[in-house]
Structures are given as structure tokens and as C-alpha cells.
Amino acid sequence: MREELAKILTEWQETWTPELVRRDFDTSLIPWELNKVVTFAGCRRVGKTYLMFQLINELSEKVERESIFYINFEDERLDKSIDTLTELIPTIEEIYGRKKELYLFLDEIQNIENWDSWVRRVNDSRRDVRLFLSGSSSKLSSREIPTALRGRTLTFEVFPLSFQEFLMFKEFNVPEQVRFSTRKPELLNLLREYVLLGGFPEVVLTDDIRIKRMLIRDYFNTIIALDVVERYGVRNPDELRTFIRLLLNSEYFSLSKVERTMKSLGYSISKATLSNYLQYLQECYFAFPLEIYSPKVKLRIQHPKKVYFVDNSFLTFLSIRFSENFGRLMENTVFIELLRRGKEVNYARGDNWEVDFVLPDEEMLIQVSYDVSGPKTMERELKGLKKAKRIFRWKKAVLITWDVEKKIDGIEIVPLWRFLLESH
């Protein structure tokens, strides 16, 4: 085992990082002065590895290269056991000698059982070793980090490209005054592409729509096969895929209704199994169920949930309905942006009104609508916001549209591009 590990470590030092397009990540957020384990968590293919490479490149300008090592634990040559981790540092020191500081970047570490116990031991006993971990599992997130590592980690959740990053990848510089710029049509054209096809870095850098479609289908199959079926031992993958197809084509869902639908399709399945499937999809950052806003826990659990997905490309290429529903794609875009900004999000609904997003910590309401050119549409969208403002006694309300900008009855109406480009 040590011989194979030595070979992989040597290969890394010889090949180093590939060429990459920089992400908009502030490396000053890394607490170099603190003994913290840094983790990057997010869906497969969102760019966690390349973000680590970006950090490695910056680090290599300050320390010697032979003190920096990267290992991907999906490499088939590696034994997926705790013994591999145990042998890692001794193997490095055997080949390269003991360094003043050692920086280890360990990709998809969740593939190693009991990885957290090794991380804790090294973090506690070796102050000269800095650990950077990544994984396509929320088990590496600050919310679900294993108990053994509580207080020892700093987590960055990684999502597909933001619109700002998307424009960087497209080499488009945003004009200072977008509203009056001759380049605004070009910006809106790129925004439409972003909303339709999402922000997976590899997909964004590909021009051929057929290749984009193939990549997304491959991502989907890999996520389901490795991050759900294999990781959680799902016995009936076809049943799981049917459940996902139902989610992709549903704006609201309840487990009871999905259970009845699946039984009508010939599946013998329980709500408990469906609940597990949903949890698995959430843990691998693929799908995000959204609860209604209510102080009553029972109501939040019983009320139908809305579901959003990590990237619009899954809705565009894999669903039947939403590829034609641009408003729904805009809504998914806004939701992921809110997650990227670390917001707590719910939705609100009452008799003849609803609000897409409720941000309790900021006492803010957000509605999303593609086309508000008709008076009735504008009235309907504002109605939910006004009703919720009165009920919750909140002052902040925003209606996000495709390209309308004004203020009506204390409600800010902003274009999607402005919302995505301005930090909140």
C-alpha cells in the first residue's frame, strides 16, 4: 500500500496543477494563523478540486512545493481504508523528509471510513500539518461535521459558478452603468444562457450544446451512482430515479402524494424510504427541499415542500416541464444564489397568495417573476408581498424580474442581473 501511495505522491509533485480559470474566492478568509481544518463541501463537479488547486498555486508562491501535496481519494489505486490515511504523512516524510510545515489537500475524503478520527488526531498532534479537505457530502459542512471535529473546522460550501464568475469565464466585463450601456443586450443574452444552462464550470467552458447535454447527463448519472446508490447502499436504483424525475417535474411535493403516485406506477415503497431518498439527495447537494415559514414545527413538517436543484441545467435537460418555464428557472437561480450567500430560506403561502422566498434572519420577502408587463401579473405578484408584509410586519420586500426596475408601494422591483451582481 505504501508503494502505491508513494507513486501517487511522486506523480503529484511531477505534474502539479493543471491550467485553470480562477474562481471568485477570497483566500484572505483562510485563517492561516489558526489551527483550523479547512473544508470545501459541495455537489460533484461544481469546482471544489479546482478551487483547491487555485489555493495550492497561491500557497506555492510562499512555501516550497515539496511541502504541498494533493490526493484524490477517488483514485482507484488507493485502498479506501483508514490505513491509507495513517500511512500518508510517514510516506511523505520518508520520500521528501520532514518539513517545517506540511500542507495536505485531500479530495473526496468522505470515501474513507472514519476519516474524521484521523483528521482530529493529526490536527491535535501535528501543529506543523495543515489540512484542507473536500467532499461531495454535507457531512463536511459546518452543519453536519462529525462531532469529533466540532470547533476544529472552517467550512466553505461550494456551488456552481455565480453569475459574476460566469461572466468572468466568458471574459465579459460588466459596464459601470448597465442600464445605459450599449452592451446591455449582450449581458442579457449571457444571463439567459446562465439561467437556461446553469453554472457548472466545465459546461460553461463548452460551446457545443450537444456536449453540454452529454456532460449534464453524465454528471447526473455519476451523482446518483456514486453519491447516492453506492454511498447509501440503495437497493433499487430505478425506484430512486423515478422519485427524482417526479421531483424534477414538481414545484410543490408532499411525501404522501409522491408515495401514492409511485405506487400507482407499480412501486412498493414507503414514505420512510422516500424521506431517506430526499435526505440522500440533500446530503450530496443535489436537491434542496424548502419548508414553509411558520413558528409551528408541526405545520412546517406537514405542509408541502418546494424543491430546488443545485444547477438549472438539470431542470433544462432532465425535466419535462421546467425547460419551458423560464420563470421557474429564474426562481431556481435566485434560490441557489441565496444559498451561496449563506441565507436561511423558507417560503410563505396563504389563501390566494404566496411568496417565493422568506428570509427570517433579515425579515425580508422575495418574489420572482419573469414577465410583469401585464397589469394583472404585476398586481398578482405584488399582492403576495403586500399580504406577507402585513402578516409578518416586515418592511423589506423585493420583486425580482427579468429587466424591470422601479419602486411600487414600498416594494423594490429589480432586474435579475442586478440582484445577481450586487452583493446582499
Poorly predicted segments: none
Number of strands: 14
Shape: globular
Pattern of helices and strands: HEHEHEHEEHHHHHEHHEHEHHEEEHEEEH
Q: What order do the strands of the largest sheet run in, or round the barrel if closed? A: 9-10-11-12-14-13
The Rg value, from CA coordinates, equals 23 Å
Separation of termini?
49 Å
Helix content: 40-55%
> How many domains would you count in the coordinates?
2
* Biggest sheet record: 6 strands, mixed
Mean pLDDT across residues: 93
Count of helical segments? Answer: 16
Structural class: alpha/beta
Strand content: 15-25%
Please summarize what this structure is.
The chain has about 425 residues and is α/β, with parallel strands linked by helices. The protein is about 45% helix and about 15% strand. It has 16 helices and 14 strands.
Structure, described:
- By secondary structure, the protein is an alpha/beta fold.
- The protein has two domains: 157 residues, Rossmann fold (3-Layer(aba) Sandwich), CATH 3.40.50; 258 residues, no CATH class.
- It contains 16 helices and 14 strands.
- Strands 9-10-11-12-14-13 form a six-stranded mixed β-sheet. The protein has a five-stranded parallel β-sheet with strand order 2-3-4-1-5, sandwiched between helices.
- Helix 1 packs across helix 3, helix 6 crosses helix 13 and helix 8 crosses helix 13.
